[in-house]
Specification:
It contains eleven helices and 14 strands. The protein is an alpha/beta fold and 436 residues long. It folds into two domains: 149 residues, no CATH class; 264 residues, Purple Acid Phosphatase, chain A, domain 2, CATH 3.60.21. Strands 3-1-14-4-5-6-7 form a seven-stranded mixed β-sheet. A seven-stranded mixed β-sheet has the order 2-12-13-11-10-9-8. Helix 7 links the parallel strand 4 and strand 5. The protein starts with 6 loop residues before the first helix and ends in a 13-residue tail after the last strand.
């Protein structure tokens, strides 16, 4: 028998599940009410069942501690979702006491629900067979999603600082395929005969409770200490909270003011919800926003053509090819494409772009990268998930992202703070280069 859920936890769960969507509907509208309802519908069943099962495993003296932790987390989740009805960035005390535990609780509840569903056929079979001892032995497995959620918080808030070396200008696979890439973590890169072209990519920062402006500003300060030739921003800058806080993006990106003429950005899918705030934030720090247009950047290794694609959800093939026709390759100049969603890379004609820079996937979000393996849940999907890909001579680099949206569900896929060093871009006078 499982320990009954205590009234306070039940009460908080019911009040949150019913009250928050209704409050959101009344104040903000049906779209937010639907969002809150879906979040709670995905997280609460698993959380409630797991709470009851864990209570049955514990001695009486320990139950009140777990019960209090669940109740507090439930209240925090409800308060966080209620605060999003009038979204804005909150001070550190609110983030630490409400937003972070609340979103962690929601993530843990969602993982628990999926885990319980996965185990249901096995438990049903064992019940029919009358194997009660095996069922009792399996009960501690109910804790596994909570441990996974705790570990995912650690993975989600930490970034791996890396130097990534990418070689351009060679032929490659006939289909989009992953290619090996040099990564240097906690060690110095091997010496090179010539200085490479250095790029800092800022991908998916999702400015919000987990990444307030000061934190992102500090991370950018560390990155630009590597003296990049270009800073390329590939979209998804804001969350609900930062979208409702004018000036927050400009504050976070302030260090880029020291790199005039070197910073270029595009819009991601989330940015279309706050286009005015994103445009104002980028303009305030000197980032040139490319919305289906090109720019010619001057670097120490000559000029670079940077083409920026807007995010679209339909007709991506025609959108990308029409853009590249309107912005044709310049003779003797390397050609880069900023493309938020890497799934569009397969539509880039072979030989038309030297390097495509993308983000969007958060590295696959769930995978085995922390164990040294490239596998993620997106490995068999149409989305290139992370790292370097080739399609003929074209190259694509997919950044794992600096942040994440809302819930700390980077499981085994840490974020990335990298400097890309491009090999095969050679200085030739002021404006040209050769690809080996």
């Amino acid at each position: 028998m499982t320990e009954p859920v205590t009234p306070i936890f039940w009460l908080l769960a019911i009040v949150t599940f019913v009250g928050v969507p209704l409050y959101g509907w009344r104040v903000r509208g049906w779209q937010y009410a639907t969002f809150a309802f879906i979040v709670l519908a995905l997280s609460l069943p698993g959380a409630v069942i797991t709470h009851a099962r864990i209570m049955g495993l514990l001695p009486s003296a320990a139950r009140w501690v777990v019960d209090a932790a669940f109740a507090y987390s439930m209240a925090a989740a409800g308060a966080h979702l209620a605060a999003l009805v009038k979204p804005r960035l909150h001070p550190p005390a609110f983030r630490l006491a409400v937003s972070i535990p609340g979103m962690t609780f929601a993530a843990a509840g969602a993982l628990s629900g999926l885990w319980l569903l996965a185990l249901l056929p096995l438990r049903g079979t064992l019940t029919l067979l009358g194997w009660d001892r095996v069922l009792a032995f399996m009960r501690p497995l109910d804790v596994l999603p909570l441990l996974t959620a705790a570990l995912s918080v650690i993975t989600s808030v930490r970034l791996r600082e890396e130097v990534v070396r990418i070689e351009l200008g060679r032929d490659g696979p006939s289909e989009v395929s992953r290619l090996p890439v040099e990564r240097y973590r906690r060690r110095q890169p091997r010496p090179l005969e010539h200085r490479p072209l250095r790029i800092v990519q800022i991908a998916d920062p999702h400015l919000g409770p987990w990444q307030p402006p000061g934190k992102l500003r500090h991370r950018i300060e560390r990155l630009i200490q590597q003296e990049p030739d270009l800073v390329l921003l590939t979209g998804d800058f804001l969350t609900m909270e930062s979208g409702g806080t004018p000036g927050s993006l400009a504050t976070a990106l302030a260090p880029l003011r020291t790199l005039p003429g070197r910073c270029f950005g595009i819009l991601g899918n989330h940015d279309h919800a706050y286009p005015g705030e994103v445009r104002a934030g980028l303009a305030a720090v000197g980032v040139r926003l490319l919305v289906d247009e090109e720019a010619i950047a001057s670097t120490a290794l000559g000029k670079i053509q940077v083409v920026g694609a807007d995010y679209v959800s339909r007709n991506r093939r025609d959108h990308i090819r029409n853009l590249l026709r309107r912005c044709p390759r310049r003779d003797g100049i390397p050609r880069f494409l900023l493309l938020h969603d890497p799934s569009g890379f397969r539509h880039v004609p072979k030989g038309d772009v030297d390097l495509t820079i993308s983000g969007h996937t958060h590295g696959g979000q769930l995978g085995l990268l922390s164990l040294g393996l490239d596998w993620t849940v997106l490995s068999r999907s149409p989305w290139p998930d992370h790292g370097l890909f080739g399609h003929g001579p074209n190259r694509l680099y997919v950044h794992r992202g600096i942040g994440f949206y809302g819930f700390p569900l980077r499981v085994g896929v840490p974020g990335e703070a990298s400097v890309l060093e491009l090999l095969g871009v050679d200085p030739v006078g002021d404006a040209t280069r050769t690809l080996q």
